[in-house]
Q: What sequence folds into this?
C-alpha cells in the first residue's frame, strides 16, 4: 500500500465534512480546508453532530469520537497541504474554481501526491487539463452522506495513469468503501447515468396520468426493492440538482431524451426543490 497517512480535504461543506470524518474515523490524519472560518465551523459542527448520533446509537464510543476529532486539523490556508499525502477536493461544482484550486495545489504538494475530485458531473479530463502532470489526477466520487453510503466511484480522466487509479482504489478500500472503476470520463459516470433516466421516466409516468406519485414510489420500493422511490429520492437529494444534471446531460450528449420534462421545469419555477425547501414532489413541514 502506498504510504498515505495524511489526507487533505478541500471544502468543508456537506460532502467535504463527511469525507474528512470518514478518513479520520478510519485512522488517517486529515487537514480540512475551506475559504472562511465560518464554513469550517459549520463543517466541524456537522461532523460532531453525526458522530454524536453514532455514539447515542452505540455504534461508536465517546473515546473513538474524541480520537477521530483529534485527527482533524482545520485551516483556511492551502499552503498547509504541503504535508499531505493525498488530496480529495469537494468544493463548489464550478469548473474554473476547481481548476484554480488544483493549479495552486500543484505548486504546494509533493510530486508523488495524487489529486482527486469528488465532482458529481464535471469532466475529470477538463479539471486535470490545467495540471502539468494530469496522470496523477482522478475522480473519487462519494455519495451523500459519505460516512454512510458504501459506494465510491473511481474515475479515469483521459490522461490518468493506471498507477493513480490503483492507489485511489486501495485507499478507498482502506476506508471500507465498495469500489467501482469508471473506465471513461463520461457525464454521470455509472450511478447518475442510470439514475437520471429513472427520474425522467417516473416523472413522465406521472405526467401521463398512468399512476399517482405515491404509487410510482411504492412500485419502485416493492417491485424493484429500491429503498426509496424516484420522487422520494429526488426530494431527498434536491429536485433542482436532478434538473441541473438533466440539462447538463442534454447539452453534453446532444440528445433531447435527457431534457427535463415540463412538470419538472414547473416544479423548479415554483421553488419546489425538495425537502430542503419544505416542498418538492411531496410537502414537508418546515421545522
Ligand atoms: N451533495 C451531494 O449529494 C454530492 C454528492 C457527491 C458529490 N458531490 C460533489 O461534491 C462537491 C461539493 O458538494 P457539496 O454538496 O459538499 O457542496 P457544499 O456547497 O455543501 O460545500 C462546498 C464547500 O466548498 C467551499 N469552497 C468553495 N470554494 C472553495 C475553495 N476555493 N477552497 C476551499 N473550499 C471552498 C464552500 O465554502 C463550501 O463550504 C461538488 O463537486 C459536488 O458535485 C455532492
A:
Amino acid at each position: 500500500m502506498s504510504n498515505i497517512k495524511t489526507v487533505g480535504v478541500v471544502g468543508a461543506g456537506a460532502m467535504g465534512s463527511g469525507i474528512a470524518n470518514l478518513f479520520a474515523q478510519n485512522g488517517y490524519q486529515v487537514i480540512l480546508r475551506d475559504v472562511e472560518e465560518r464554513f469550517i465551523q459549520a463543517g466541524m459542527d456537522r461532523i460532531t453532530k453525526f458522530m454524536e448520533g453514532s455514539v447515542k446509537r452505540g455504534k461508536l464510543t465517546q473515546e473513538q469520537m474524541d480520537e477521530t476529532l483529534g485527527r482533524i486539523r482545520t485551516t483556511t490556508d492551502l499552503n498547509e497541504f504541503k504535508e499531505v499525502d493525498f488530496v480529495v477536493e469537494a468544493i463548489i461544482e464550478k469548473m474554473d474554481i476547481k481548476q484554480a484550486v488544483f493549479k495552486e495545489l500543484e505548486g504546494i504538494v509533493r510530486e508523488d501526491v495524487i489529486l482527486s475530485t469528488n465532482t458529481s458531473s464535471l469532466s475529470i479530463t477538463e479539471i486535470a487539463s490545467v495540471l502539468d502532470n494530469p496522470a496523477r489526477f482522478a475522480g473519487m466520487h462519494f455519495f451523500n452522506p459519505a460516512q454512510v453510503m458504501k459506494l465510491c466511484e473511481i474515475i479515469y480522466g483521459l490522461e490518468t495513469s493506471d498507477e493513480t487509479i490503483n492507489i485511489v482504489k486501495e485507499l478507498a478500500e482502506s476506508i471500507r468503501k465498495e469500489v467501482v472503476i469508471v473506465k471513461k470520463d463520461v457525464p454521470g459516470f455509472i450511478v447518475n447515468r442510470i439514475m437520471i433516466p429513472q427520474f425522467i421516466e417516473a416523472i413522465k409516468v406521472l405526467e401521463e396520468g398512468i399512476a399517482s406519485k405515491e404509487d410510482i414510489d411504492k412500485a419502485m420500493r416493492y417491485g424493484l426493492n429500491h429503498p426509496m422511490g424516484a420522487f422520494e429520492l429526488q426530494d431527498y437529494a434536491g429536485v433542482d440538482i436532478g434538473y441541473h444534471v438533466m440539462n447538463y446531460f442534454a447539452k453534453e450528449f446532444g440528445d433531447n431524451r435527457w431534457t427535463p420534462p415540463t412538470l419538472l421545469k414547473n416544479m423548479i419555477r415554483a421553488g419546489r426543490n425538495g425537502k430542503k425547501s419544505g416542498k418538492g414532489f411531496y410537502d414537508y413541514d418546515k421545522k
Remarks:
- The mean pLDDT is 96.
- Residues 10-16, 33-35, 39, 90-93, 97, 101, 118-120, 142-144 surround nicotinamide-adenine-dinucleotide (CB under 6 Å).
- The first helix runs from residue 14 to 25.
- The beta strands are 6-10, 29-33, 72-75, 86-89, 114-117, 137-142, 151-155, 178-182.
